[in-house]
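Here's my example:
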Amino acid sequence: MRVRPGIEESLKLNFFIERGYTRKRCPKCGEHFWTLDPDREVCGESPCEPYSFIGRGLSKKFSVADAREGFLSFMESRGHTRIGRYPVVARWRDDLFLTSASIVDFQPFVTAGLVPPPANPLTISQPCIRLKDIDKVGLTMGRHLTIFEMMAHHAFNTPREEVYWKERTLELFHEYATSVLSVPEEEIIYKEGWWEGGGNAGPDVEPIVAGLEIATLVFMEYKVRDGVYEKMSTRVVDTGYGLERITWLSQGTPTAFDAVYGHLVDRFLDLLGIERPDRSLMERYSTLSSLTAHVEKGKKLKELRRVIASQLELDPEELDVALSPVELAYSVLDHTKTVAFMLADGLVPSNSKEGYLGRLVIRRTLRALRSLGAEVPLADLVDLQLEYWGSQFPELLEKRDRILDMVSVEEARFLEVLKKGRQLIERELKKLKRSRGVPLDFLLELYDSHGVPPELAAEVAREHGVDIEVPDNFYELVAARHEAPEVKPPELPPYLEEVEAMPKTELLFYKDPYARTFKAKVVGLLDDALVLDRTAFYPEGGGQPSDTGFLILSDGTKLKVVRAEKVKDRVLHFVEGELSKVRVGDEVSGEIDWPKRISLMRHHTATHVLLESAKRVLGDHVWQWGAQKGETESRLDVTHYKSVTDEELRRIDLLANSIVMENRRVITKWMPRQEAERVHGFEIYQGGVVPDLNLRIVEIEGFNVQACAGTHVMRTGEIGPIKILRARRIQDGVVRFEFSAGMAAVEKLLEAYERMKRISSVVGAPLERAEDAVETVVKENRELSKRLREALENLLVHRIRDAQAAAIGNLEFRVVEVELDDRKALTDAADSYVREHPETVLCLVGGSGRRQVVLALGALAIERGLDAGRMLSEVLS
């Protein structure tokens, strides 16, 4: 059981005592808080008491831009260095998909004290996305948002350097709130809490003003390992100031959406065909709206609405009718901004990883539009967000065309899901009827596996007499399944302990990737492998296969190296041969299979060239999904939202080969992690997050930079030609390029040329006219096939007409056997005959081996109630 460290002593600060604050316990929520009002009983945070800022705001009013700049400038004036935002797609993390807080930018390496921060102390305004609140967006009038900016100041205190800690953190907030925001000191309440996230934890203080929590001041001093809290050597001041909440507080508008989105609210309401409710109603309701946040605890929205209506002395049904449309509109407003930032920062909607989360937001937005009966294209709404936020975030406008194209593609796919969804739901419901009830997992699985929205499932189910209740927090439940990568425990080799006792292996292939031979000493032996003190054999990793070759003993005995594997900085050489002759301390000579190595080097460098070429042709949303290098063929999987056209493929091919022809330098160097990220950005993690403090950087001069541990040629000219052989979608949102490089590409091109020569010979035309000749042959073949089918159909119709018929009533039954086994020809002939003879019931049997049976009914037979499917089943049985 996890035992949390105590909060009371750690937050008994001079800041509170010297200013005359009193510590109390809220009788409603049970949390402790500090206040200057000795008569105050409750903590002041809504819903323990209503908001009191609605309709009045602060003496100073701020726009979003003004509030952001005011905060950052204040922190700069207090010794903090301002840094730019990180992407909302957390490419530098292997345990998260989206940036959910400003501290995510610095976990785990900076917070662990392993890598220096970009500045210390620093300040930032970080756009964040949290899908765990997605079903509350709109309901709480802006208290909860899917996308929000977390303004922050961070200080990283190490054993060597104390920057500032709890007292100074409280002083900074207090000064900012009272001087910049002009909040009266006596109106600020400080609530105690506990924060955990990303493997770290610590006590926190949450400032409350007029019922609204506007910041969280976390003192991160623990790391959480296997449920146990351990003291951190680096203590981190982790603050988060809600930009949107502060803007809302200052303006006192009925909702945060009015304060944050300004005129865009009316524009959206107009496009969605929604009338804004009476302002006084909105103000009264908003003061209590935080109660609706309890939907995340499984409470029903209708019940929560009834509680609020009772306090306002309003009819709950009328209140629901007035508010539901505008709440949906607010969610659309929030979600379209979320989509704009996700796609601008490189996310590609798909059915897995971060792409799944992007698609979830898009489809929830489309579901809201469908519920409102709005016919405005989603791309038009996203475009309004790009315009609105473009002056503050120019990168949104720079990527406008691609963002809107992706949104349009996603909307078209969603409409296809709706078309196919009804049949799918009906089929799945039939399976359910064999069991009791309709579990929530049924809805979750329908959405997870097929993208079917729960509202459609409930609608179809009701038509079939099955009642399904969709939880008000459905999309939060879905997001919780996918918010982070599945953590797989590392596969530890059975010989790990033995290997760790051996000396580390010096990696010669980094010093000289062209070294074909080397000498080394044996430092360890396993069953079928040996460890050397140094090696030129590259161990498998990063999609590059292991080197092979030979190890030669002093007596000339050759051991065949079939693969090399790196374990804890030791390279194991798995061999075939007389390993019993080898002793620890023996000297051996190594020989690399050079043709294989140089081919892999060419293909690996070609992978980097091809990736960058794809990014420059298709767009900078392209991200490496996976790669595998081979001697003759390699593959590169990238994120892309639609199939690659032939013209795009040609441009990628040409760009890649132009980089080869320019013979650019391929530079490899080691860089500290923080410096590599600062200089080159998070693009370096195309091949995946590298969990090292020092990164090996591979740069194709002026073209592409990646963190990569593979072997590469020294100049692009050494790659030789690059030829993309195939490009195809292997799953939703992922395109695979299969290609060859170097001599392997030359051989592929020669094979293609030889095939063209053979085709030229077959069609009897010169090579340069072979394409036209083939097209002529294909056209003639199609025409002949068409004539042959028409002749077959006429022949069959004559056979049917000549066959003996049995009359029953005014219907005519015919059974005809023919030797033809072409099912399409049989079907076409049968359909043609019954169209001309509506009184006919025709059974056409073809083939001499496996029989083909076609049953066709004329219009009159169908009117009489005959069922072709049932009749055919009886015939076949």
Summary: The chain is about 40% helix and 20% strand. Residues 400-432 form the longest helix (33 residues). Residues 496-592 form a domain with the Elongation Factor Tu (Ef-tu); domain 3 fold (CATH 2.40.30.130).
